[in-house]
Description:
The chain is α+β, with helices and mostly antiparallel strands. Helix content is 22%, strand content 28%.
Amino acid sequence: MQMTMTCAEESRALDKSLAGTFKPADIFFLIESNLPDYGGWRGSAVKTASSAGEFAPYLQHLGATPRAKILFIRRPQGDGKNFYIALTNQDEPEIYHTELDDYRDLLALDIASLSAPGAPHVDGRDLTQIDELYTVCTNGRHDPCCAAYGAPVYQELARQAGADRVWQTTHIGGHRMAATLIAFPQGVVYGHLDPGDIESLLMNHRAGYVLTHKYRGRGCYAGHALHEAAHLAAGAAEAVIRERTRNYGLQDLRLQAVTDLGAGIQRVSFHDGLGSRHSADVGTRMSTPRLTSCGDEPKPMPQHVVKTLTPN
């Protein structure tokens, strides 16, 4: 009898590093809704709701923001209209919250206020800054691994961090790396999480440290408008450099530049707190065919090869 593996089981068996697997986003919009008018959270919930129906004009308005990522969020028995904006592409990342009176309020979000000093505002009302928030993908209708791995992680995270700080979310990206999670306000993305990882994740995140062995990348690299290949390369290089130099604090390394050397190689440079420069060359190649989602045909996936350079 032939044995089969889920996409997450295969990924856990094969992936030595998760770094460099989160596509770039600078601003995150989190909207509470179970999408009852759309039959619940379907596979591509945001895409479906953006194309037609009540949410279409609201999501199109938010989606006009450069490098933005929109997620629907929910909690068991929740029926509110909570709305969060995470601004991760700045030296001091921030996340803001309000409760909408009506989803139409999203059309009143002043997009220009997202890049201006101070809090963003909706219809002249400032959003309230909060200190932290966590979102866990549990969208099992996109891929069953998201529910199988994500639900237990969500429950444990809500227990340890407090239910008011944790949300279930639609597809983050990379369900083969379930359970996947985004820790705000910094927009740090983790994968292959299990309930037993939560205590360490919370302790380190609150102290400003990164768990490099579960790290997929960051929502942004402050001050750098990177294209996708450069952004992914920066994430891959960051994890290796942190491990090599033991600079595990989020503020220990500052991205300086990503330079395209050609032939699919990106040179990524960071400075540490002492002024030393740490660089790595990141090459990307395609793997042999593998599962990217349960039920889909296997296909090649990008893999990063990181070669660190002598610090200077």
